[in-house]
């Protein structure tokens, strides 16, 4: 059923290279924060982008939003390459794509009352006409995220973390976007507040008929919200597939290790851990060949020599690994993060 | 067996501009040698204040007032002199923190900082203490410790810094380690490595560990006994299997059901605990969870509930226990 | 109908918010004290023509160097002019020169600081010039400029403004650098806001509070430097009664008529003190977390 949905956003071979001030042999050191990633977001779906810190998932999100200009690649929004759009068209496009940020404390201007914060997108895009209609729209947006109208003139510091994140969501939804990019929207919140915000996001997404790109380091949250998931490691999407399948039968050794490291709130459920050697290498000097080979339990000679290509090992299941097909066959028997049949 | 740490009716009050605030209100628990003990709760529940009070780290002249008992091997830490506390800290009880970057001094090498602890407590020679520092770094799993001992904190990665800080905390082989959100800032793969390392060291040094965290998963995977705190009080205490498979308090239940995990159904709306944690000074006279509790009735917000036994190993602070269990 | 009700609710919410801001400002003792002192001083200066018992230039050779009395509260100077009148009128000139210096240097400094903090190409040019200017003490710079341009009140104001501007620009620049990295700036950029909107609509309000504090300090400092310039003969030209000129005139009789220096000096000190207290108070009030 989901297969029939149209693609809204297609990211094709996008890279983002930062040049640093550090020079070695008179050459500027460059960091490929995002390295040739491709993925598609379909209508009404939630696409999860997951990975550990420094894997480039936030940079990827900002590149899609064109807060950062991609170094190369194409980004198609409803079939049109948005990188070719100039100022005028870009502004119109920005109406359709909105972002929600991680840190609710720094993502709201402390000198503006929340009414003004939520109104700002309307002003920039010259929507809403008179001040009175704009105010109506703002009040409605605030109400939709569960805030009261008498909080219209309050300043951000008077709100709790969860409420601040609601304000951020109100600001994103007021223009009825087609795509919402949420960068770690619940990572800074307490557990009991997290679930409120996750439910709200889900609700808003459904009522707007929008697609959601959900960026997070938290596998459990990603698993809960996503329809499809891309796993990032050192700037690349090393695996992408349907969420259910990914958590049952990961194809990439990194995904497998990542899943096995997630602590579950069930004392008797101690998974067989896939030990990862060492830590994520510096993105300044990524390893040759497959970027994961020096930490991978399955690595062979070929892994250091050549970079694995994005390979469709099963329908709709992409893995960047030389041995993906083999590993999948082995994994067939062991479920890694499946939903347990019965939980007492 | 006598517990290593016995905290009895600990109460910590802060003098603030708005009057006296009770941040920890009658907390009691016991930690045994070789046991990992979990102290769980959301921000503002008093879990960190509890540990800092036991370590006597607050300014007691101006800020904090303690009452109750905190017996370490029978000695009441809350009544000890500051001089005695200085001997105890780092030697008998050590702490590790969430943010290793700010817990380590940036202008000294990690070797120097580990040796500093030895200088304070053991009056060792330079060569000897360096050897000990290297050994400790090796024990915490830092590769090539002979060279790492001379690096500065900023030259290490996050996981390595955490290991270095743990090495510093454990170099005097303390009886008790208080770990305050030790892995919150780390990635899951590194978190797994660090927690495994702490568990190994706990067994080999036969030390008691108090793990303070908001992460239910980490607690479930490592702790044998667990205490859940809410607004300065213990709301539920029990073995890990009690807490995670048979939670009794509505708050514990809510926490477990509201965090996405393999227990929750994908895509379905998550369970929600209404509202948010109120400020400490706004806590009512009755049950502190009453205004967020789906089971609360009128009496709940006026009658403070007691922490009562519920089964052999479990205690819970809730008046409505009977009716919740029978599903009314 | 529901629209009207919600409009009403909004209005009361706005009123409540304003009361809240006012009340929290009134809670800050420093701010209230500084504001009170400065209100009195400014009123004294503004109402000088009404309050002063005599004209500031009225010479009365018979009443030379009279000590304070019920007729001449501050006594008289060597030319028999009423010192209270001269001090009140002097306050006017000093406040005008100091205030306009503070405003002009802050406005210009803020603009340059914002631009150089936001655009890296502007940063190198503007900041190097500012650093060059800051290498010269403001006093010397002002003397040199007045010497070159001639000593009039306007030139004193001009040279002091130029001398203080780099100070503000540096503060504004460093605040801009940190504010522009905040997520809310990124958020507004992701809406497609123009650079002018980002810089002046969103960054500037967050840079304002250290600048306003700086402004009050410059105000105070400019009054002192203006007095010093007058004392050196490079300030507001005599016989105009700036506080500096009043003190300069008292120099020769400092040992025989103490009131000629002490009383105007106290007024000047109170003014400077009041401004500094006000500055600290404003900083407390402007802290959004209050």
- In sequence order, what are the helices and strands of chain A, one letter per element? EEEHEEHEHHHEHEHEEHHHEEH
Percent in strands of chain A: 15-25%
- Please name the fourth-level CATH homologous superfamily of chain C: MetI-like
The CA-CA distance between the termini of chain A, in Å, is 33 Å
CATH superfamily of the largest domain in chain A: P-loop containing nucleotide triphosphate hydrolases
Considering residues with a beta carbon less than 8 A from a beta carbon on another chain, report the largest interface and each chain's count: A-B, 49 and 47 residues
Order the strands across the largest sheet of chain A as they lie in space.
6-7-8-3-9-10-12-11
Alpha carbon gap, first and last residue of chain C:
37 Å
- Domain module tally of chain A: 2
CATH topology grouping of chain C: MetI-like fold
Mean pLDDT of chain C: 86
Please provide the ordered H/E string of secondary-structure elements of chain C: HHHHHHHHHHH
Shape of chain A: globular
Q: Give the C-level CATH assignment of the largest domain in chain A.
A: Alpha Beta
SSE class of chain A: alpha/beta
Largest sheet of chain C: none
The top level CATH class name of chain C: Mainly Alpha
Report on the structure:
The complex is a heterotrimer of chains A (344), B (328) and C (290). Chain A is α/β, with parallel strands linked by helices and 344 residues long. Chain A has eleven helices and twelve strands. Chain A has helices spanning 57-64, 87-96, 114-124, 131-144, 161-173, 191-208, 219-225, 243-248, 253-261, 301-305, 324-331, and strands at 7-24, 27-42, 46-50, 72-77, 80-81, 97-100, 179-183, 211-216, 228-233, 236-242, 311-314, 317-319. In chain A, helix 3 packs parallel to helix 5. The radius of gyration of chain A is 21 Å and the shape is globular. The relative contact order of chain B is 0.13. The model of chain B has no long low-confidence stretch (mean pLDDT 90). In chain C, helix 4 (83-118) runs parallel beside helix 11. By secondary structure, chain C is an all-alpha fold. Chains in contact: A-B, A-C. At the A-B interface, helix 6, helix 7 and helix 9 of A face helix 7, helix 8, helix 9, helix 10 and helix 11 of B.
């Amino acid at each position: 059923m989901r297969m029939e949905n149209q693609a809204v956003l297609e990211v094709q071979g996008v890279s983002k290279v930062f040049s640093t001030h550090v020079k070695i042999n008179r050459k500027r050191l460059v960091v490929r924060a995002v390295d040739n990633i491709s993925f598609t977001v379909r209508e009404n779906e939630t696409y999860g982008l997951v990975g550990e810190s420094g894997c480039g998932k936030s940079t990827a999100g900002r590149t899609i939003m064109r807060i950062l200009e991609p170094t190369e690649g194409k980004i198609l929004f409803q079939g049109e390459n948005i990188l070719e759009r100039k100022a005028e068209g870009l502004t119109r496009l920005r109406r359709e794509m909105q972002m929600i940020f991680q840190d609710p404390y720094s993502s709201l201007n402390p000198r503006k009352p929340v009414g003004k914060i939520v109104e700002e997108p309307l002003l920039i895009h010259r929507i809403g006409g008179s001040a009175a209609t704009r105010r109506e729209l703002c009040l409605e947006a605030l109400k939709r995220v569960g805030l009261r109208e008498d909080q219209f003139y309050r300043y951000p510091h008077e709100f709790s973390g969860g409420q601040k994140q609601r304000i951020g969501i109100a600001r994103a939804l007021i223009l009825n976007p087609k795509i919402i990019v949420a960068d770690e929207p619940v990572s800074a919140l307490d557990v009991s507040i997290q679930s409120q915000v996750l439910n709200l996001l889900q609700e808003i997404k459904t009522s707007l008929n929008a697609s959601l790109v959900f960026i997070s380091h938290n596998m459990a949250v990603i698993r809960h919200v996503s329809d499809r998931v891309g796993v990032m490691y050192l700037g690349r999407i090393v695996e992408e597939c349907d969420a259910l399948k990914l958590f049952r039968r990961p194809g990439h050794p990194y995904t497998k290790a990542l899943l096995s490291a997630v602590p579950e709130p069930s004392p008797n459920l101690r998974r067989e851990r896939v030990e990862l050697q060492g830590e994520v290498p510096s993105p300044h000097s990524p390893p040759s060949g497959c970027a994961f080979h020096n930490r991978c339990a399955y690595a062979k000679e070929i892994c250091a020599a050549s970079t694995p290509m994005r390979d469709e090992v099963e329908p709709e299941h992409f893995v960047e690994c030389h041995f993906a097909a083999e590993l999948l066959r082995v994994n067939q028997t062991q479920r890694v993060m499946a939903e347990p049949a019965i939980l007492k | 067996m006598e517990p290593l740490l016995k905290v009895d009716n600990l109460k910590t009050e802060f003098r603030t501009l708005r009057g006296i605030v009770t941040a920890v209100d009658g907390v009691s628990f016991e930690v045994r040698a070789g046991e990992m003990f979990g102290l769980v709760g959301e921000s503002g529940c008093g879990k960190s204040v509890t540990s800092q009070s036991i370590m006597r780290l607050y300014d007691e002249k101006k800020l904090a007032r303690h009452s109750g008992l905190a017996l370490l091997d029978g000695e009441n830490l809350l009544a000890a002199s500051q001089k005695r506390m200085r001997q105890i800290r780092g030697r008998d009880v050590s702490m590790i923190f969430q943010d290793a970057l700010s817990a380590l001094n940036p202008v000294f090498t990690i070797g120097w900082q580990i040796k500093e602890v030895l200088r304070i407590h053991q009056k060792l020679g330079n060569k000897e203490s360096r050897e000990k520092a290297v050994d400790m770094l090796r024990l915490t799993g830092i590769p090539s410790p002979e060279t790492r001992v001379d690096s500065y904190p900023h030259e290490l990665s996050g996981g390595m810094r955490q290991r270095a800080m743990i090495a510093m905390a454990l170099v005097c082989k303390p009886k008790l380690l208080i770990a305050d959100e030790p892995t919150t800032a780390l990635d899951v793969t590194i978190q797994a490595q660090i927690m495994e390392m702490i568990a190994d060291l706990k067994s080999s040094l036969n030390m008691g560990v108090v793990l303070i965290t908001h992460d239910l998963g980490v607690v479930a995977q490592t702790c044998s006994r667990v205490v859940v705190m809410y607004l300065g009080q213990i709301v539920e205490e029990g073995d890990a299997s009690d807490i995670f498979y048979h939670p009794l308090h509505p708050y514990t239940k809510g926490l477990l059901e509201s965090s996405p995990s393999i227990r929750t159904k994908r895509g379905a709306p998550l369970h929600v605990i209404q509202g948010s944690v109120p400020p400490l000074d706004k806590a009512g006279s009755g049950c502190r969870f009453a205004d967020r509790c789906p089971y609360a009735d009128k009496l709940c917000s006026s009658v403070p509930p007691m922490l009562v036994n519920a089964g052999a190993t479990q205690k819970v602070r809730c008046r409505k226990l009977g009716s919740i269990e029978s599903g009314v | 109908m529901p629209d009207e009700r919600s409009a009403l609710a909004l209005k009361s919410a706005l009123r409540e918010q304003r009361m809240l801001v006012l009340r929290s400002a009134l809670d800050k003792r420093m701010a209230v004290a500084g504001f009170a002192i400065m209100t009195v001083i400014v009123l004294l200066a503004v109402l000088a023509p009404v309050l002063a018992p005599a004209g500031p230039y009225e010479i009365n050779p018979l009443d030379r160097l009279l000590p304070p009395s019920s007729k001449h509260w501050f006594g008289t100077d060597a030319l028999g002019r009423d010192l209270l009148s001269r001090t009140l009128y002097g306050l006017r000139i000093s406040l005008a020169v100091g205030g306009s210096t503070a405003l002009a240097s802050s406005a210009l400094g803020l603009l340059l600081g914002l631009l150089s903090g936001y655009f890296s190409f502007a940063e190198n040019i503007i900041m190097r010039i500012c650093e060059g200017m800051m290498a010269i003490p403001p006093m010397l710079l002002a003397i040199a400029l007045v010497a070159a341009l001639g000593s009039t009140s306007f030139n004193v104001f001009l040279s002091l403004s130029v001398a203080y501007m780099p100070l503000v620009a540096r503060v504004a620049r460093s605040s801009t650098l940190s504010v522009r990295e905040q997520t809310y700036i990124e958020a507004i950029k992701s809406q497609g806001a123009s650079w002018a909107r980002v810089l002046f609509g969103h960054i500037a309000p967050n840079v304002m509070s250290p600048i306003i504090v700086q402004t009050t300090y410059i105000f105070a400092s400019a009054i002192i430097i203006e007095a010093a310039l007058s004392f050196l003969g490079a300030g507001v030209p005599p016989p105009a009664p700036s506080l500096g000129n009043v003190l300069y005139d008292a120099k020769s009789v400092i040992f025989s008529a103490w009131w000629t220096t002490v009383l105007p000096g106290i007024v000047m000190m109170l003014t400077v003190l009041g401004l500094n207290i006000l500055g600290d108070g404003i900083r407390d009030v402007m802290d959004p977390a209050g």
